[in-house]
Write a structure and sequence with these properties.
By secondary structure, the chain is of the alpha+beta class. It is built from 7 helices and 15 strands. Strand 3 and strand 4 form a beta hairpin. The chain is globular and about 60 Å long. The termini are far apart. The mean pLDDT is 91. The protein binds 6-O-phosphono-alpha-D-fructofuranose.
Length: 335
């Protein structure tokens, strides 16, 4: 059991050896994400004070208004990862295509690519509700020293070497895994240091919280409707509590601590659901499984889905293992 109050830097050094095939590069990569998280956190926390709220005028590839903090967070993470010369490529939910980072340079020995959702839940920004950053890290599969290619980014989620999120909430936390469990670090803003506050985070096998946007109820598959009614029935440990923040990172984080299930299903409005496989579902699924939880599209394990394009969307059922499996049972009966 890791000692609490250890700093993130100390933790990374201590666990360096347990991470296979790294020459310290992954540690430097996590450290650069730590720096970007502190910079973005500073802006998120003062968003109400400066003219950084409001749409940046553009819309991203998802057709969503880009809030200025979206743009700022995207730029900061890309800039930090580029300046530290650690990765050979970056893909962002806010960018139409992936970005090569000097990968055409035959001397570029960097072997990791990073996929990010720089500010998830951004519609919550100007109502002062928590938002988050999600990141996902793979080793490139094309030869080092050659230009990075789309196949480096379209790997199955099971190939991730690390994944995590920053939640900018009542406190700012960085939660991540490198395949050896999930650990949470809380930022002390007074000194700008992350401390290990939540070692070995795990989803309770059961929970009594379900997170779904019930405003879309009439558009849901019958199996989801039946599962929601199951949650609401006066029976056994039910009815459950409905909690939906509109920010995946926040709902996921609460459910991991208290037990619960998050569902964003397909619907008659979104035939493949809303969440992005590469930038949201794969990293959160890796974390969920490392925290003894489960993540599927209602039928198939998320980490087994072979992506076919950067902005692919999938239905998402994620959280306490027994709750996800109960929801999957309803989906099998009424897909
Ligand atoms: P809706 C934010 O845009 C997001 O991707 C997740 O963070 C969040 O859970 C979901 O979409 C909210 O979507 O359609 O319920 O507003």
């Amino acid at each position: 059991m890791s000692r609490k109050n250890k700093t993130l830097g100390e933790y990374i050094i201590e666990n360096q050896a347990s991470f296979k095939y790294t020459s310290g590069e992954l540690s430097r990569l996590i450290n650069s994400i730590r720096l970007a998280a502190k910079v973005v956190n500073h802006e998120v926390n003062k968003a109400g004070l400066v003219d950084i709220i409001g749409t940046a005028g553009d819309t991203n590839i998802q057709g969503e208004d880009q809030q200025k903090l979206d743009v700022y967070a995207n730029d900061k993470f890309i800039q930090t990862l580029t300046n530290r010369n650690i990765v050979c490529g970056i893909a962002s939910e806010e960018e139409d295509d992936f970005i090569s980072i000097n990968s055409q340079d035959e001397n570029n020995q960097n072997k990791y690519v990073v996929l990010i959702d720089p500010l998830d839940g951004s519609s919550n920004i100007d109502v002062n509700v928590s938002v988050g950053t999600i990141f996902s890290i793979y080793r490139r599969i094309t030869p080092v020293g050659t230009p990075v290619k789309i196949e480096d980014f379209l790997q199955k989620g099971s190939e991730q070497v690390a994944a995590g999120y920053i939640v900018y909430g009542t406190s700012t936390m960085l939660v991540y895994t490198t395949g050896h469990g999930v650990n949470g670090f809380t930022l002390n803003p007074a000194i700008g240091t992350f401390y290990l506050s939540h070692p070995n985070m795990e989803f309770p096998k059961n929970g009594r919280i379900y997170s779904v946007n019930e405003g879309n109820y009439t558009h849901f598959p019958q199996g989801v409707k039946n599962y929601i009614k199951y949650c609401q029935m006066e029976e056994e440990d039910r009815p459950y509590t409905s909690r939906y923040i509109g920010s995946l990172v926040s709902d996921f984080h609460r459910n991991m601590i208290k037990g619960g299930v998050y569902i964003y299903p397909k619907s008659s409005k979104n035939s493949t659901g809303k969440l992005r496989l590469l930038y949201e579902c794969n990293p959160m699924a890796f974390l969920a499984e490392q925290a003894q939880g489960k993540a599927s599209d209602g039928f198939t394990r998320i980490l087994d889905i072979k992506p076919n394009e950067l902005h692919q969307r999938v239905p998402f059922f994620c959280g306490s293992k027994n709750m996800v499996e109960k929801a999957e049972e309803f989906m099998r009966k009424n897909p």
